[in-house]
C-alpha cells in the first residue's frame, strides 16, 4: 500500500474550506476529473457518514463512501469500487485553522492490485496522478475561496 499526502494552506475560513472540499461536484475544477456526483446522501448531512460519491477521472471510475464526518475538522472515505480495480485503505482530509487561513492535509492509502508489478505501478503511475489531482483540487478551492479570510494576499 502506498501512502500519499498533499497539503495546502487556503486563504479562507475553516468552515468555507471544509464545505467546498466535501462537496464532490467541486472536484471537476481539476482537469483530470470529468464528472462527480453525490449518489446517496449521508445520514446527518448530504456529504456525511454513509454518503456515496461517484467520481469519473481520466484514469478511471471510483465509488467512495464517507466513513467519518466531523465538520469542519475532518472527513474520511473509502473507495468501495473502482474501474480499473484498486485497493484502498484510507482517504482522509483534515482541516486546521492557521494564521494564513485553513491548512488542509489530504491523505490516501491505495494500491494497484497487479501481481509482482502492482507496487511499482502504484508508485510510478498512480501516485503522481493522484497527488497531482488532489493538488489541483486544493488549488481550485484556494482560487474559489480566495480572500474570504479577511486578509489580503501579499
Write a structural description:
- The chain has a seven-stranded antiparallel beta sheet, covered by helices on one side.
- It has 154 residues and is of the alpha+beta class.
- Strand 4 and strand 5 (74-83) form a beta hairpin.
- Helix 1 (14-22) packs across helix 2.
- It is globular, with a radius of gyration of 15 Å.
- The relative contact order is 0.25.
- The protein contains two helices and seven strands.
Give me the secondary-structure category: alpha+beta
Largest sheet: spatial strand order: 1-7-6-5-4-3-2
Radius of gyration: 15 Å
Total of helices: 2
Q: What's the number of extended β-strand segments?
A: 7
Largest sheet: 7 strands, antiparallel
What is the average of the pLDDT values? 91
Task: Give the SSE string.
Answer: EHEEEEEEH
Would you identify the regions where 5 or more consecutive residues have pLDDT less than 50?
none
Q: Please give the alpha-carbon distance between the first and last residues.
A: 40 Å
- The helix fraction, in percent, is 10-25%
Shape: globular
- By oligomeric state, this entry counts as single chain
Strand content: 35-45%
Amino acid at each position: 500500500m502506498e501512502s500519499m499526502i498533499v497539503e495546502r494552506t487556503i486563504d479562507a475560513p475553516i468552515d468555507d474550506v471544509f464545505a467546498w472540499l466535501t462537496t464532490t461536484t467541486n472536484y471537476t475544477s481539476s482537469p483530470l476529473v470529468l464528472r462527480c456526483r453525490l449518489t446517496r446522501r449521508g445520514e446527518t448531512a448530504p456529504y456525511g457518514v454513509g454518503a456515496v460519491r461517484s467520481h469519473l477521472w481520466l484514469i478511471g471510475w471510483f465509488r467512495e463512501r464517507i466513513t467519518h464526518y466531523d465538520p469542519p475538522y475532518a472527513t474520511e472515505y473509502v473507495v468501495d469500487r473502482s474501474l480499473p480495480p484498486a485497493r484502498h485503505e484510507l482517504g482522509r482530509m483534515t482541516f486546521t485553522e492557521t494564521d494564513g487561513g485553513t491548512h488542509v492535509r489530504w491523505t490516501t492509502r491505495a494500491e494497484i492490485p497487479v501481481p509482482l508489478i502492482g507496487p511499482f505501478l502504484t508508485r510510478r503511475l498512480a501516485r503522481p496522478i493522484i497527488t497531482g489531482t488532489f493538488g489541483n483540487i486544493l488549488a481550485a478551492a484556494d482560487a474559489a475561496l480566495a480572500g474570504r479570510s479577511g486578509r489580503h494576499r501579499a
